[in-house]
Design a protein that fits this description.
This protein has 430 residues and is of the alpha+beta class. The protein has 13 helices and 19 strands. The chain has helices at 4-10, 12-19, 27-63, 69-102, 139-146, 151-158, 168-186, 201-206, 234-239, 296-314, 360-365, 389-399, 414-417; strands at 121-126, 149-150, 164-165, 191-192, 198-199, 219-222, 225-229, 244-246, 253-262, 281-291, 318-322, 334-342, 347-356, 367-370, 376-378, 380-388, 407-408, 421-422, 428-429.
Length: 430
């Protein structure tokens, strides 16, 4: 969320930057709402001052034994005027807030031009794409043949875009999540949290999922209470500090957690419907940092390294790209995508997004620290996937597949599993 005054002061510069991501800022409408709001506040202040003066005159006149009827009528009319303008102010404030909530974050000028992944800038690559002496299969065929993935029974339970892992597949899924958490807590300094999977509308608004993306969310309702299933642990982890002032000495705050994530994927039907790439429910380890705004750029690079470390430890080939301005998420200023190699598709696919939100989420969620002058000031928030378990599982199955249909296990996961290979029939082998 933006400070209306800051956008107005930026003027054409704000219009230019938002246009890079395909958003047309109506600066005149914003100025009009801000002016109307300011005028109503000024009018209310003047009327309240007059009401206070009249109230004092009523008391003085009453003590002197004078007639206070006319003064009381004046006080009554002032009260009515104040209430009328308060109603107008509330309506204008609601309009202004709705407009501000709909405006995406200003993209960093370093982001490339463009509005799709075709315009992303490649930053670096890690690892050699595995070479096979046979035609590599995709993770669906491999997993179903081995009996470690079951999409048919998942569909029977819940419909399309769900998965069941079984036997060694379920053990591998569990091992990946535990490995990611161990890596982030023991090596990268994050504090693990177990958080609710159902959150309030206010919480969803704090990180930018609402109001814009309500169609992508699963929602529950009991009596008068609405709760949303989280699309990512970013939502509860960041909002743990909503409406709080974090002592500067405690920054950066580094949080991680593993949760299920729920996404309706509205508008994406027909894309990635096969396998584990795009599901309604998936497990993900999230990493979040709340930092001094002056340190946000360096902290983003640190966080990117933390997410990359997961893939490096697993020996999976991947690349890092910077997203184009028009393809950057609603709340983000700058986003790096990590894309892992999928041999069956002969391409890299996104597995993690690591983003700097600046003060955008902090303003919405009211997360602050104190500056050098002791006054409250907004923090910066960052988050990244570290990593989604399902997509990592899919990439691992594909990159470590063998000609006989078996799947090797990266050495770093062996201590979590106790076996080094999943045989073609799904049985674990040392």
């Amino acid at each position: 969320m933006h400070d209306a005054r800051a956008l107005i002061e930026m003027g054409p510069e704000a219009v230019r930057r938002l246009a890079r991501r395909g958003y047309n800022l109506d600066l005149s409408a914003l100025q009009d709402l801000q002016s109307r709001r300011n005028r109503s506040i000024h009018s209310i202040d003047e009327l309240r001052a007059e009401a206070k003066r009249v109230a004092a005159e009523v008391q003085q006149t009453a003590r002197e034994g004078g007639d206070i009827a006319a003064l009381k009528e004046t006080a009554r009319k002032l009260k009515e005027q104040i209430r009328e303008i308060e109603v107008e102010q509330e309506e204008v404030q609601d309009e202004l807030t709705a407009l501000l909530l709909s405006i995406p974050n200003l993209p960093d000028d370093r982001t490339p031009e463009g509005d799709s992944d075709e315009f992303a800038t490649e930053i670096r690559r890690f690892g050699a794409q595995p070479a096979f002496a046979f035609a590599p299969k995709d993770h669906v065929d491999l997993g179903e043949a081995a009996g470690i993935l079951d999409f048919t029974r998942a569909t029977k339970l819940s419909g399309p875009r769900f998965a069941v892992t079984r036997g060694a597949g379920a053990a591998l899924e569990r091992a990946l999540g535990t490995f990611f958490l161990d890596l982030h807590t023991r090596r990268h300094g994050y504090v693990e949290h177990s958080v609710p999977y159902l959150v309030s509308r206010k919480t969803m608004t704090g990180t930018g999922q609402l109001p814009k993306f309500e169609a992508d969310l699963f929602k529950t309702g009991v009596a008068e209470r609405d709760l949303f299933l989280i699309p990512t642990a970013e939502v509860p982890l960041t909002n743990l500090y909503a409406d709080e002032i974090i002592p500067a000495a405690e920054l950066p705050v580094a949080l991680t957690g593993q949760t299920p994530c729920f996404r309706s994927e509205a508008g994406s039907y027909g894309r990635d419907t096969r396998g584990l790439i795009r599901q309604h429910q998936f497990t993900k380890v999230e990493i979040v940092r709340i930092v001094d705004p002056e340190q946000a750029d360096s902290e983003l690079e640190n966080m990117l390294g933390h997410a990359e470390a997961c893939l490096k430890e697993l020996g999976l080939a991947y690349r890092v790209v910077m997203l184009a301005a028009g393809d950057t998420g609603f709340s983000a200023q700058l986003t790096y995508d990590i894309e892992v190699w999928f041999p069956s598709q002969n391409t890299y696919r996104e597995i993690s997004s690591v983003s700097n939100f600046g003060s955008f989420q902090a303003r919405r969620a009211n997360i602050r620290t104190r500056g050098a002058d002791g006054k409250p000031t907004l923090v910066a928030t960052l988050n990244g996937s570290g990593l989604p378990v399902g997509r990592t599982l899919a990439a691992l199955i594909e990159q470590y597949q063998q000609e006989d249909g078996s799947i090797l296990i990266p050495q770093t996961l062996v201590p979590y599993l106790g076996f080094r290979r999943i045989a073609a029939d799904g049985s674990p082998e040392e």
